[in-house]
Amino acid sequence: MKWLLTLGWAVFVVGGLGAGWASVHNLVVLAQPGAARRPVATQPPAVGAASLTARPQLRDFDQSPPPFAPAGEPLAQPTVQPSSPVGRLTVLLMGIDQRPDEAAAGGDPGRTDTMLLVSIDFDAHTATMVSIPRDGYVVIPDHGNERVNAAYTFGEIDKRGTGPALAKRTVAQLFGVPVDRYALVDIHSMENVIDTLGGVWIDNPYRLIDRQYPTDNYGTITIDIPAGHQLMDGVTAVEYARTRHPDSDYGRQSRQQQVLLAIRNQALQLQTLPRLPQLVPQVLDLVHTDLTPVEIGQLLSFGRGLDAAKDIELLPPNPDLTPSYTGPGGAAYINLTPAYRAAVRAMILDPRVATERAQIEVYNAGAPAGSGGRAAALLGRAGLTVGQIATAPRVTSTRIEAGSAARQSAEIVARVLGLPPNALVVSGDSNAVHVLLGPETELPAG
Question: Which of 18, 353, 400, 422 to pair with 387, CA 20 to 30 A apart?
Fold first, then answer.
């Protein structure tokens, strides 16, 4: 049963490896969307755990903090993170980078150099995927300030097996969202899974040359991945997802999302079914998770019918919202700005708004000077992107004109700006939202 459950999770996360497998039928029948979750006990970091100033010497850390505040708020006491509402599930997907010599007892636990937050809305039949920059400078509860990929590391240093719980807690307080479950993936095992699938098809937009790609023995090699649509084997696909020197960490985040979806697409092909006997033990070695049997059944049923083109929303990396900084010791840091955290929060809490891709424009139509900019700032902090701020002919009262394809986004705009429901006028089927600020405009403070 354990391999069946693990395979079910892999169906959604790493490609639908068992889509159509008849033996999961009974599990799927029992696992209807909205079924109650069974709480999974997690243990908070040990009281009195070593602070960052007393941490052991680990690779890839810099003692010089960046010149900006860490994202998130420190928690004085361990807290139980809230669960998502019924019908939703939010999973922190982590790819662990651990060198072979670090796997021994007492070795460096490694870093979660791939971190994605996946939120699934079973009722709306949508999924959203956010790549969390591994170098984001954050507050790690009870451990001080460091890059977000260190949360797992310090949890494992406290006590083996508690790294995922600390990573979940860190991400939850970072974005102010529930993080229900985790899945930890061994990056090196991913190569074997991709090879067993027969490779994955990737459309590489431009040639990638990395002359400093790190190896397991702490050296570097040169990799050269040509541009174009190509079938990549496991080694190449993982190199493609992990390299960042040819462009930046923003490019790497996009490639990670691209490879994950490519694995899913390849695994859903009919020719994959004969390879399942080989894939099962590899997946067992690949995924560690606290998902319950019911949740895995939900994901299995959900993942089989998901249309990646219409039902999966990605939050693309944005250097303007997550500017980078290199410390004097050479370590990279990323500033996870309030606007970025608000965008992630909005996307996770209501994936249906993300699918609308609303085109929001704010117009000063007789309001006091500066009202347009203040309204756009309020909407930005709520996770909504304003495409244009301009002036317009005077109107008698403030109103929002929206197409039906952006109704939910428009309703959020009205709430954020403190407008009554009758200020929203919906007509047509576009995804445009036009905010017309009239002379009586009084925007909420802060």
Answer: 422
